[in-house]
Amino acid sequence: MTRKQKRLAVIGGGVGFLLAAVLLVMFAFSQSIAYFYVPGDLATANVPPGTRIRLGGLVETGTVKRGEGSTVTFAVTDTIGTVPVTYTGILPDLFREGQGVVAEGSFAAGRSVFVADTVLAKHDETYMPKDVADRLKAQGVTLSGKETIR
Amino acid sequence: MIIEIGHYALILVLATSIVQSLLPLAGTLRNDPALMAVAPAAATAGFLLTLFSFFVLTFAYVTSDFSVRNVWENSHSLKPMIYKVSGVWGNHEGSMMLWLLILAFFSALVATFGGNLPDRLKANVLAVQGWITAAFALFILLTSNPFLRLDPAPGEGKDLNPILQDVGLAIHPPLLYLGYVGFSVCFSFAIAALIDGRIDAAWARWVRPWALMAWSFLTAGIAMGSYWAYYELGWGGWWFWDPVENASFMPWLAGTALLHSALVMEKREALKIWTVLLAILTFSLSLLGTFLVRSGVLTSVHAFATDPTRGVFILAILIVFIGGALSLFAFRAPALKAGGLFAPMSREGALVFNNLILTTAAATVLTGTLYPLVLESLTGEKISVGAPFFNMTFGLLMVPLLLAVPFGPLLAWKRGDILAAGQRLFAAVGVGLALAAIVQWMHGGGPVLAYFGLALGFYMLAGSVTDLALRAGVGKVSAGIARKRLFGLPGSAFGTALAHFGVGVTVIGVVAVTAFETEHVVEMKPGATVSAGGYTLTFDGIRQGRGPNYTEESGHFSISRGGVKTSEVWSSKRLYTARRMPTTEAGIRTFGLSQLYVSLGDHMGDGGIVVRVWWKPMILCIWLGALIMMAGGAVSLFDRRLRIGAPQGARTTKAAARLEAAE
Q: What pLDDT is recorded for position A128?
């Protein structure tokens, strides 16, 4: 090979590698992005069972029930819609009724129950997950008591 | 009064940094040595003033002076002393002060130990450091002033976020910032060289120690942060691909690439333009990280407060510095001469491969981190890009790089023989596969891929040893001579081998934990047992307790193996009284390099409590590997050829620089 051909081969290899990386990123995006919904969206949005989403809202007061072992059921609401959720595991320290929560998981077959594998309610008592706060505010939900949305 | 003096000192920092950013530059333009000599003095004065200002803030925290708004918001009189001190940077304003302090510290280091630098370069470097200092001093004074007073002074403070009340806060941010901000020196060197329009191998020799230092600190800072999150959050995870973690990981990837490309530039004068660009990009990613963490665009434990003016201000700093640097680069780069030629299969080629993969990986992480933010601001759609995305892209990208790592040091400069290198690594490959097979035979189970991952890790360990053995001539010369030669090897050879060994150790830890960890979530009443990793945990009961600023309930567990009690562990839930905030204090027991991790959940109606138990095999390898990498960086740093103050090397390189200029 001449020097020019060699250089072309090296550059071609580099560009090929970058192309492969771009394709990989696009494929990974198509596989693993989770969209964010509040319960009110779900009446119109068609989310098939098994599709991974993030569901945000308030934990409806009086709905938290402990079942067998460490399974917990509760309802997430944005006052327009309500979705029942089941979760197996330890709830975060800051999980409380009437407080904001983000549940990650997918709908079981039949689309009636949301099976969460991750529940987030983090950081401090005035903290509201930003996604939840924005959406609730947009829908005109006022939060009780000292809760302030930044 | 003392608070106002501290405030005033901070204003003086702004003033000295403006002097530092203008006069030396005027000096280099006019070739006036007196003006250039202002730079070190201004940098040292700026550092001392920042230090004083920082001490004043610390004093306010230590004495619980709640008339200072920042102290009232983040401290409490009952807080233990260590958290009063570390709490100084456990909030937005204080952490920006730490940022500024470390930036000024690095400027002072350049001023003090940069005696062998050409005067013009040193003046320009310090001037660029001055611009960065001025921008951040202005940012603190205008939007994040920690010295604002409250009148009347409240009687008690609001306390520090309990998650941050941990020794981790005393160590993690300073280490991380020493790394993050340390790359500012590389950035300043790049800009200074572009201003002067002269870049040669000597430049790389001057930059490399700074890059090594920053890289070592950043490695330690990231590892420390990971371990802290692991034991403090109670979820048992050690890396979440959280945007804030990514913000520190991207400069690390780019910085690792910079270390390697600077090597090529130093030894062979090739990759000049690319190395300068990497120096700019690495610090740009540090700035971007600061923006992501401090502007409040992300909600996370690191985003203490959200104030839109801060975000806009940091964004402006980001645009001015990155945009300015890249414009200067675009303007000057075409004038740089390309350096030495090399064949694709050579040490240089291997380092180019390293750079290609590391920068692609950094770009991938950047895409995954910014995509949700960009999409939301463009379309309002909210998505999350989580661990699956990063594991798929980053994980796949790393495989060829890790396979290639042992080859790099075995290839010759200019033209290497990959087949010969492969033959020499035959033993390493064999060792890797054999050790993985032994693990499979002893442990069994788990996915097949995991054993290939382990084999990869072991192969990297054996590869580093092979590298040192070949350099010492083991097998070719007598054992005595080989030993003598081994100890006579330059520090950088040991540094390389150690750092690559550390990567292998981390790989082993990551693969073992990912593939073989077990998790058990059970409801337990006193007397109940659960087994994990060959150990049996018996729940003995709950005890109520009280700390200085919290109440806690702790579960006691006895750990036994084969019916014999070997140890015990407490796992607690705390309620911090000032903020009414609960936290989990996981119980962790170490067995060799593996750990049992126990965290408490909710009480059940019938007197039981939910308990989550993990068996984390070889998890300590993850952080141990990072420590070994850091040690490798430190050993390289002490290589005599790179020592910052080595006057011998400087005179020759200065002469070389003059020669090149004359050509």
A: 55
Q: B383 and A10: CB-CB below 8 Å?
A: no
Read off the CATH number of the domain in which A122 is found. Answer: 2.40.50.140
- Nearest-Cα distance to chain B for A33, in Å, is 5
φ/ψ (deg, to 5) at A103: -110, 135
Residue positions counted in chain A: 150
Using DSSP's 3-state secondary structure scheme, residue B498 falls into helix
Question: Which residues on chain A are in Cβ contact (under 8 Å) with B308?
Answer: none
Residue A95 lies in a domain: yes
Q: Does B344 touch chain A (CB under 8 A)?
A: yes
Q: Which of A35, A54, A114 is nearest to A82 (CA)?
A: A114
- What three-state secondary structure class fits B252? helix
CA distance B467 to A21: 30
- Cβ of B257 under 8 Å from any chain A Cβ? no
CA distances from B100 to A144, B37, B50, B314 (A): 41, 23, 7, 14
Can you tell me the distance from the alpha carbon of A125 to that of B163, in angstroms, rounded to the nearest whole number?
Answer: 13
User: Which residue is it, tokens 């992300």?
Assistant: B298
Instruction: Provide the 8-state DSSP code for B335.
Output: G
Contact A91, A65 (CB under 8 A): no
Pairing of the two strands A82-88 and A114-120: parallel
- The pLDDT value recorded for residue A136 is 64
Same domain (yes/no): A121, A94: yes
Task: Determine contact, residues A113/A86, Cβ cutoff 8 Å.
Answer: yes
CA triplet B363, B369, B373: central angle to 5 degrees?
A: 125
pLDDT of residue B384: 81
Q: Is B443 left (phi over 0), alpha (psi -120 to 50) or beta?
A: alpha
pTM, two decimal places: 0.90
For residues B575 and B90, what is the distance between their CA atoms, to the nearest angstrom?
A: 19
Complex prediction ipTM: 0.78
Residue-level pLDDT at A52: 84
Beta strands in B491-586 (DSSP E): 518-524, 529-532, 535-546, 550-561, 564-576, 581-585
Q: Would you state the structure tokens that stand for residue B79, as one six-digit string?
A: 């807080």
pLDDT at B276: 93
Give yes or no for B561 touching A (CB within 8 A). Answer: no
- Give the mutation candidate from A2, A10, A47, A70 for the B interface (greatest B CB count, under 10 A): A70
Give residue A127's pLDDT. 47
DSSP for B636-650, please give it. HHT-GGG-TT-HHHH
Tokens describing residue B105: 């510290």
B399: contact with A, CB 8 A cutoff: no
> Is B104 within 8 Å of B302 (Cβ atoms)?
no
pLDDT of B452: 94
For residue B152, say if its preceding peptide bond is cis, omega within 30 degrees of 0. Answer: yes
Q: Is A144 inside a domain boundary? A: no
Query: Residue B406 and residue B401: Cα distance in Å, rounded?
Result: 10
Q: Is A87 annotated as a binding residue?
A: no
Q: Tell me, yes or no, whether B539 and B584 share the same domain.
A: yes
In chain B (663 residues long), the average pLDDT of successive 10-residue segments reads: 94 97 93 92 96 96 94 90 92 93 96 88 95 96 92 86 84 93 96 88 90 96 93 84 90 96 88 92 93 70 58 88 93 78 85 94 94 82 84 94 93 86 90 92 86 95 94 84 87 92 97 92 89 91 88 92 89 85 88 92 80 93 96 87 46 43 41
Answer whether residue A119 is part of any domain: yes
Q: Could you give the number of structural domains in chain A?
A: 2
Residue B16: inside a domain = yes
A10 and A72 inside one domain: no
Q: Give SS3 for A106.
A: strand
Q: 3-state secondary structure string, B32-101? A: CHHHHCHHHHHHHHHHHHHHHHHHHHHHHHHCCCCCEHHHHHHCCCCCCHHHHHHHHHCCHHHHHHHHHH
**Averaged confidence pLDDT in chain A:** 77
Which residues share a beta bridge with B590? B595
What's the distance, CA A115 to chain centroid?
A: 12
